[in-house]
Amino acid sequence: MEVSVALRAIEPEDIDILYQWENDMELWVVSDTQKPFSRHQLKQYIQGINLDIYQSKELRLMIETEEDKPVVVGMIDLFDFDPYHNRAGVGVMLNKEFEGKGFASQALELFIDYCFNTLGIFQLYSSITSSNTKSIKLFEKLGFEKSGVRKKWRKIGRTYYDELFYQLINE
């Protein structure tokens, strides 16, 4: 039986898992993070994240399974929301133990529907390092098209990688 996912707002009770994810140095490569976060910083973030999207310019939702006892499997972000041009960036992060089970695909599909049909966003985009084949496959599967390349844009360790720019336009 396939388990489906739901998206929900961040709750104060999510602080432990956010603390774990935000301080996982392996994830810093895709999040542009360069220093750890304290619990105090994350508490303040949680208090502010539920502001109106027009104020915060972002929306972060938790991805959880739809079971009797839901399990948080990851999160999905809308960032750099530009209400004038009606576009925003999108990113998905799954806990490693839940990768490859279709959760990211389901969550991104739900999120696209919400962004286009509820928020009225015209365009979503994502910048993906050329070495991140899982994300490339995910975004292409859901209709994002590669529209640009930034050569040697991201440094991971001592190596520079191209960054691919993907777009999905709400036609």
From TrEMBL:
UniProt-listed InterPro entries: Acyl_CoA_acyltransferase (IPR016181), GNAT_dom (IPR000182)
PANTHER family: GNAT-FAMILY ACETYLTRANSFERASE, SPERMIDINE N(1)-ACETYLTRANSFERASE
Pfam families the record matches: Acetyltransf_3
Top-level taxon of origin: Bacteria
SUPFAM superfamilies registered for this protein in UniProt: Acyl-CoA N-acyltransferases (Nat) (SSF55729)
Name of the featured protein: GNAT family N-acetyltransferase
GO MF terms, alphabetically ordered: acyltransferase activity, transferring groups other than amino-acyl groups
N-acetyltransferase domain span: 5-167
